[in-house]
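pinned: reference chain
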Amino acid sequence: MRRLQLIAAAAAGAMIFSACAKKDEATEGQAAEAAATPAVDLAAEEQAIRNRSGEWMNYANAKDAASIANGIFTPDGTAIMNDKAHKGSAAIQAGMEKQMKENPDALVSWATEQVRVAQSGDLALETGSFNFDPDGAGKKPEVHGSFVTTWVKVDDQWRAAADAGGENVATATP
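pinned: its structure tokens
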């Protein structure tokens, strides 16, 4: 009986040792993989998105809908403008061209308030505020609003996958 207990104890010890060794090997493998994968510089990625957003604003004020639709957005991106969703490059470009034709003297500007980049470095969310003056120095009132843009990294470049904005709702006075 004592001999069976010793054999059982030895077998249990061997299994425990074996499990610990496998865990150590897995931990070492994960550590090696993490060391081989470079850390994402989140601050640099945030700045890259801010730069792309500025590039987009320049295209908007140059009335270059094609560069926005085909260079800023992903081919399957979605832009929500004037309460309408435009899906895909062709629809985004057509929607922007229509808006630009209807407001040829329009000026737009926006300010990024926050960029949140995923730890993976391939997905981000930008939020901010915008001003849209439909007739430049004309009599139409300026529109103030907020926006949110979802960015994805495609071929090492940030592209807008979805963008939506709308006029700010006036806060009710008590």
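why pinned: The longest strand covers residues 143-154. The longest helix spans residues 2-36.
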